[in-house]
Amino acid sequence: MRKEIAAVVVTYNRKALLEQCLEKIMSQEDAECDVIVIDNASTDGTGEMIKSRFDRLEITYINTGSNLGGAGGFQYGVRQAVILGYQYIWMMDDDTLPKENALCELLKANEKLSGNWGFLSSVAYWTDGNLCSMNIQKKTIFRHVGKQEYQAEMAPVVMCSFVSLLVRASVVKSVGLPIGEYFIWTDDYEYTGRISSQYPCYMVPSSKVIHAMKKHTRVDFATDDSSRIDRYHYIYRNDVHCYRRYGVKGWLYIILKDMYTLLNIMINSKERKWEKMKVVVKGVKEGISFRPRVGSGKFL
């Protein structure tokens, strides 16, 4: 018998982390959920690991057959969860390690809010116990949450990552799915921003997870490995599409962020500066005309 909650975990060639993630999900205290694993066609034996370690009814394993990117994987997984009839979807990457009461604390917040919310977001810490800088929620499109919000029982937010995000299925039916065409980057901010434009949304400090990413740093195109240059156009394209809907404030954010990026590349990049700058400009140009399909509840 299916439970009310499905954890949707997107993975790609990180079976060791995925194994830890699933163990943490299945060990939640005072809360239960099923799991839908969306595998973007991993080649490291992920499917075999699932069969040998997690061959149980609570876990559904789906291999997409191709790499849809994180955005495409979440679009796929959220759609499946709603179609299968789950009332809540708990979204996370494969390197998310929820504390034993992470889900329970989100459900407590749900009760206190009487279901009047669009999404609930956990607080992510890195492996050293410090707040994970990649996953700090936004209370406006310009400002992240601060000490005051972390000390509250719950704090209103407008954007956050998919690192432990609880969404109601009824909200998905209303606002639609994450945009798979984003492929990577900004899909989480776009989707949570879309939800918070229609529903009150909250960070729940008592719900904690570890984000076991390799490096505790924000995305920095200037100093990142030059072999990854081509993929960066996604972030600049997607940012334009995400923020332009906020009007003047959104465009101001885009201009300031991209000007800072270009300056940072000129000052701190040790190689291929002009190529990197061209990628930024290319991404912005693509974003101006980018018109991905934003589905509605009719996808069912």
Quick overview of this protein structure:
The chain is an alpha/beta fold and 300 residues long. It has helices at residues 15-26, 46-53, 69-83, 102-112, 147-150, 169-175, 187-196, 233-243, 248-268, 273-289, and strands at 5-11, 34-39, 59-63, 88-93, 96-98, 119-125, 155-156, 165-168, 202-211. The chain has 2 domains: 5-217, Spore Coat Polysaccharide Biosynthesis Protein SpsA, Chain A (Alpha-Beta Complex); 226-289.
Low-confidence stretches: none
Rounded mean pLDDT is: 93
Largest beta-sheet characterization = 9 strands, mixed
Count of strand segments: 9
End-to-end C-alpha gap: 22 Å
| Secondary-structure class | alpha/beta
Q: Gyration radius, to the nearest Å?
A: 19 Å
State the name of the first-level CATH class of the largest domain: Alpha Beta
Can you name the CATH architecture of the largest domain?
A: Alpha-Beta Complex
